[in-house]
Amino acid sequence: MAKKQYAVIGLGRFGTSIARRLYEAGQEVLGIDLNEERVEDAEKYITHGIIADSTEEKALNSVGISNFDCVIVAIGDDIQASILTAMLLKNLGVKKVIAKAISKRHGQVLEAIGTNWIIYPERDMGERVANQLLSPNMLNY
Ligand code: ATP
User: Is the Cβ–Cβ distance between 12 and 34 less than 8 Å?
Assistant: First the structure.
């Protein structure tokens, strides 16, 4: 697989696990978080880390965000920051924006601004577990 450039915004458990898996698969991963400690904790799992507020266009431009193949917005609780970030990314021309939604409404707004893939972590994981339980080799559970 050719090397791609990913940026993960928000280095909580969700963002860090995406960053880590991509990094371990040999991809370029930039991690961005407001919180210095979060960036430091994720350092082993990312190619570069920066402390920045993703709702500031200047900060996104300074890392050349529009050159990234895919940007993941892994901010949940601060819905406003999540939406603003996704909107800026689309306005700056990022082709593939993925964002986590914590509610249906949050997801609807993300969809309206052109987010390419919206993830509902609990719902999606619940479906995945059920599908695994229904798969033929798991029916003994
Ligand atoms: P998780 O559920 O993935 O463990 P969490 O519970 O820490 O995450 P979230 O609100 O989803 O909480 O935040 C994820 C990360 O996003 C946090 O580390 C937070 O500092 C970061 N974050 C929030 N707002 C911004 C922002 N504007 N710019 C950059 N990072 C942000």
Answer: no
